[in-house]
């Protein structure tokens, strides 16, 4: 029998309490924990157990002098195993010091460059720099980047967004370098060896030491299991963007092939750019990136509202002979919208493309856009993925890998942004940019164009580099609050044009908006809850519906399925006597989630069905209104909710097709903290998805009947995903409603899923799902991105061999 791994994987001091020492790792489900300072048993500690990682927090004495060792033991039966051991001398050195982690280190001896990435945190801002062994600073580029994942580890302190770093360090004859994390009155140093033999020796020594310790403590069985787990973790480890980019950027050979490519349709692309006191270095980089495109049928329309002649002189001198570049000096600077409009007036192309005056294009940007247009005749709009670039243009970071067109996500934030290309006829139909939305004029324009477009295409490639500088929202979002208010007004105007009753408000995350739709009428909602025994769970669920819900026009249909406990039948009778809007139905067959819900739907009187697990507890009082208001839309067929574990970790924030161990479907950002701002803010953004879980799912009853309900061949798993995908085939949207929150205690109704019979059943359902939806699994979820990993739920970058 495989031995359970018991391991402490990281330890640190709390940022909020200098005497609290935090140790995290794997603990057995049923065990006791003992803490010792030398031989003295400690009582002041807490243990928090979690599925993936447990935490022991120890309140250490202020004065640690005289102590030599901190030890934590795990007690299982008559066994006492050492879980953690640390020298007090080393622990004391960590107190009040900056904390860091290096997750990528690459020494390129051929190019004489060392690349290091990771994160660093402290109670106050940290300065990061590099020195040689003598302490002399070495000039290098160190970029601070957004690392949302770090906040998850330091939940006791707001560490801020830009805790990540990426350093590119040149070296010559140095044998080692020192990476310094400087706090206000202290510093931590990470030594970096630059000798091949020492690098290999360090790695071998570290792995050998760990391996021997495991072999001694857990024997060959535990050692083997750990090796396999490490191999799996290594395989699924997060992928640094710098490495992803190096493997996904077209080489010169591929670019040359693109230059020779001949398209059957060769649209003229008009790139419109307003200039205003653009630094010549940035302007030159922009123009080189445009004129270096592998697709050459373009015109560059530059409208210059500068208060000096530098840009004009530079363009005429360096690019005056290129007839594709059209330049116009404006008499006055009338703002971003009006200046862009002057550039649009210069355009004569089949498509209009927008760019900022200090950003750059990937060399294959126009080629990929025109290729997409040729492969999809009649395309009205094309947009692409993008990343950010440092001031000097030398380093790319923070990529935004976007989904295919996602209407409700667009109503929450301008995720399309760059590159945006629109057919000239659509632009002429919607008109010019509007000055009243300056700061979010592109957002307003994109919304108006999307309202008129029939075919919107997405190229999932990084084709635009957004310069990251203090005056830009890319680098300092707080600097342009007026732009975010303009964005809110743009979304509100969008709803008003469509005649949709909605209230748009700003959220605590700048540039992201919340839409509250009005409920039309007072339709009856039929809440269907399958149940077997588990009175306590069902009672918690039903009580929360009655006591916490502001929407009152609902009925509850409980489907009794072979309960054996008399207590539950007593509770059923109690419910029927207390409430006139509760029905108790009896399903006498074996458990079949699809069959049970289909059975209950026949007895439902509501216009809307709300499928609900019996292990759900309401959090948001207006959860039904939040779901119903979206479900009432003509273009929507299903609405799902945000579901949380009782510890406020995410259980469900949407389903991605192809994600998870079986590569069928998985929950995105599973087990992440409730309020953590994750990649692209996806857990906090109401959006369209391919599927949501039926643990809490609302759907129109008319569409439920049209699709003949859930497929009962999916007895337990995938019935909800299959239903959602069939709904998508009808052309209806599946919406994840981020503002309807409920607790989900998960899988209490059907019991253990790991016995042999259930494993066999699950395997059969996986096979059926893959057979039915094989084409989608091969093509990929349109609401995800092919550049993001399916092996992890955190939107890590996809590896080349995944």
Automatic annotation (TrEMBL):
Coiled coil: none annotated. Pfam families: Glycos_transf_2. Residues 270-399, 526-676 form the Glycosyltransferase 2-like domain. CDD domains: GT2_RfbC_Mx_like (cd04184), GT_2_like_c (cd04186). PANTHER family: RHAMNOSYLTRANSFERASE WBBL (PTHR43179:SF7). This is Glycosyltransferase family 2 protein. It comes from Candidatus Blautia stercoripullorum. The lineage of its organism: Bacteria, Bacillati, Bacillota, Clostridia, Lachnospirales.
